[in-house]
Amino acid sequence: MQTTFPSSIFQGILFGLAVSLISCLIAIRIARRLKLVDVPGRELHKQHDLPIPLAGGISLLLTLLIGWLLDSRSMADLWKLMIPALLVLGIGLADDFRPVRFWMKLLGQTCAGILLIALGVQVHFVENGVSWLPPFLAQGLDMAITILWLVGIANAYNFIDSMDGLATGLSAIVTVFFSFTTLFAGQIMLAHFMAYLAGAFLGLHLLNSPPAKLFLGDSGALFMGFLLAETSLLYNPKIFPQLSSWFVPIMVLGLPLFDIALVVFSRLRRGLPVYRADRGHTYHRLVALGLEPIRAVLVIQMTSIVLGCLAFIAMNQVPYIANGIFIGVCIIGLVLLAYLDHPKRWPKA
After folding, report:
1. Could you tell me if residue 346 is inside a domain?
2. Residue 88 pLDDT more than 50?
């Protein structure tokens, strides 16, 4: 029986890849018919020369719907994730057609988070780990953490979508790691779903990589990030001590979190609006340091693989070693943030 579980993971990846490629081609045609395209010169930070369909969100939605129709057993609880995620997708699509105010997008994402909690999906970190707090306060803190996580990861993916193929590649890496962590935790159905998502993101990655045939747009990036944040909340490694495994989703999703922290810190330090798009992301700073664009993307994606490996290593250690690894990673992240945003290396206002 143990040998069939890993093979089913790879079957799920291939299944997701095949469905995703078909969905991408359909979504490109739909986006062109709806005139849902990114026109060159619409924003200063964009550099493409031809109109590109903003088909990422539509493609991912089609991939999930087709997957559910063909393999409803592995996606039995998908509806709990899909209803709130569809709200985020709708907000993203509205923004792709016509810019939506930043606060309205945050409000919509917060409502989606509240809806997910109402459907029974949230963290119970404080409630289970801090016994001396009153139950209502512990539950309130868990709800706040859940919403902050969902909104933070969704926007982190929207922020890091600063170069063709970057966000989709990171998503594929993250879902591969999650498929194996959930497999080892005994969450077989969730592992199958994460494997399917990995294949879906690989298909998107193929058509989003340079030269891109489609862009994710806000609809694709927000939908992708919110979906990953939702599925990470379902991760429940009962076979590993909670003190050694609580940070696994944070480390696996570490690169988007680092990028949004860098961008927000940099804009606040310079007195710029947090929501104003610019070319100050991790990718742009690596290019400014002299890396070729494709090499900068590979450095970011390889770092994501390293973080995933460290998360795997940490959760098999005793708590003080596991948390020491996590704290060490956080310290390195803070040092890199300070290095990349130093005025000598990034003096732009």
Report:
1. no
2. yes
How is residue 94 written in tokens?
A: 């509205």
**pTM of the complete model beyond 0.85:** yes
- pLDDT tens per residue, range 36-50: 998 775 655 455 567
- Of the chain, the percentage scoring pLDDT greater than 70 comes to 93
Whole-angstrom Cα distance, residue 73 to residue 271? Answer: 51
**pLDDT at residue 261 is higher than 80:** yes
Contact 216, 96 (CB under 8 A): no
Nearest to 204 by CA among 92, 82, 57: 57
Banded pLDDT at 2 (limits 50, 70, 90)? very low
Q: Report whether the peptide linkage leading into residue 211 is cis, meaning its omega lies within 30 degrees of zero.
A: yes
User: Could you tell me how far CA 251 lies from the centroid of its own chain?
Assistant: 12
pLDDT for residue 49: 61
Which DSSP symbol is given to 74? T
- Dist. CA 12–CA 116, nearest whole Å: 25
Which of the 8 DSSP states describes residue 53?
Answer: E
DSSP 8-state class, residue 100:
P
Structural domain of 86: 4-340
Both tokens of residue 327? 């704290």
Measuring CA to CA, which residue among 151, 188, 181, 199 is closest to residue 247? 181
Q: Is residue 27 part of a domain?
A: yes
Does residue 195 fall inside a structural domain?
yes
Whole-number average pLDDT of the chain: 88
**Does residue 348 lie within any of the structural domains?**
no
Asked if residues 341 and 272 have their Cβ atoms less than 8 Å apart, the reply is: no
Query: Domains in the chain: how many in total?
Result: 1
Helix (H) and strand (E) counts in the chain = 15, 2
**Residues 145, 146, 152, 157, CA torsion sign:** positive
